[in-house]
Amino acid sequence: MIEVGLTGRDLARVRFARSPLEEVTFSLAVLAGRKGAALHGPWLAAVKPRLARLDLSLLDALTARGNYYPGFLVPPPKGADATFADEVARMRATDPAEVRRELDLCWPDGNLAARLRPLYDDPTRHLGELADVYTRYWEAAIEPFWPRIRALHDADLAHRSAALTAGGLDRLFAELHPQIEYADDRLRLHMSAHAASFAAAGAGVLLIPSVFIWPKIAVFDTDDYQPAIAYPARGVGAVWGTEPPPAKITPLAGLVGHSRAALLVLLELPRSTKQLAETLGVTAPTVSEHLAVLKRSNLVRARRAGRTVLYERTALGSRLLIEHS
Predict the structure, then answer these.
(1) CATH code (residue 310)
(2) Which of 51, 89, 309, 313 is least surrounded by Cβ atoms within 10 Å, i.e. has the fewest?
(3) Of the residues 102, 127, 145, which one is the last residue of a structural domain?
């Protein structure tokens, strides 16, 4: 078990963020068959052909320990709008001494894989190689699916915000994950492979929803970063099942039209106009026009999440979809 001591200052600094770089890192364990193959089967089937010619040996070696990741692979994000480009640039700029320190922490017995030795001996040179491989992997395996992954993040963050508003930190942590317990100003993370105790020391706690971390959680604590916990995003089981299968929308399409029927299927998870347009392969103004009709009919609703407007099905929209599917 890991215990994190929290002061009043820490509790005032509990916040959420998203991390494209962490999704990339966690997805490598799924790709390697160490977890989540059943849940992420559709993703695996889609990406494996794309990765056939990509040399992932460096990434495989860095993530081989499964539950232990060098900190420069998963630096806690700066906010909910973190981009992959920003985070991989931070990775590329990691201090060489930090690279060696993190590798020593992950392989304290000195049994470093031969594939990692160049990175250890000359971090400045080989961090560039690492960032380049990460970028190629991101472009092939994650970026094409980022709109739906981001939509799941958005839905989770909206739910957590509502839980915090309705029930405070007690409710927020109670619903976050079965391995997370909050009591007596302490977070207890029930992770059998770990035993540690530390104080957040006024830095607060960063909470990061993730698709590929499922079904576990991950904890990150270094001197340079705010303590962070990555947890499975709520509704992760639906992440690969929200495309509108033609057979599913045909009956409803006769009533509201094919495009609006497709939007109702997609809006099982909250999505922005841009995300919907990218998924359907149409323009944003076209999507906006259809959403306006659906909203006037009380089949979808809109809410603001930061600078983004998200749309989701109403209960009436869900009933209509069920009755005509």
Answers:
(1) 1.10.10.10
(2) 89
(3) 145
175 contact partners, CB below 8 Å, separation of at least 6: 160, 163
| Residue 233 and residue 251 in one domain | no
Q: So what's the pLDDT on residue 225? A: 67
Residue 126's domain comprises 17-145
Q: Which two tokens stand for residue 37?
A: 């193959």
Assess whether 28 and 130 both reside in one domain.
Answer: yes
Residue 245's pLDDT is 47
- Phi, psi (deg, nearest 5) at residue 215: -100, 10
> Which of 145, 161, 192 finishes a domain?
145
Predicted pLDDT at 295 = 94
Q: Do 128 and 22 fall within a single domain?
A: yes
- Taking the chain (325 residues) in runs of 10, the rounded mean pLDDT of each run is 87 91 94 88 94 94 83 83 92 94 89 94 95 97 91 85 87 89 88 75 89 89 76 84 52 82 81 83 90 94 81 85 70
Cα-Cα-Cα-Cα torsion 150, 152, 154, 159, nearest 10 degrees, comes to -170
CA distance 264 to 268: 7
Instruction: Give this prediction's pTM.
Output: 0.76
Q: What pLDDT shows up at residue 102?
A: 92
Structural Rg of the chain based on CA atoms: 21
Tell me which amino acid residue 191 is.
M
pLDDT number for residue 192: 65
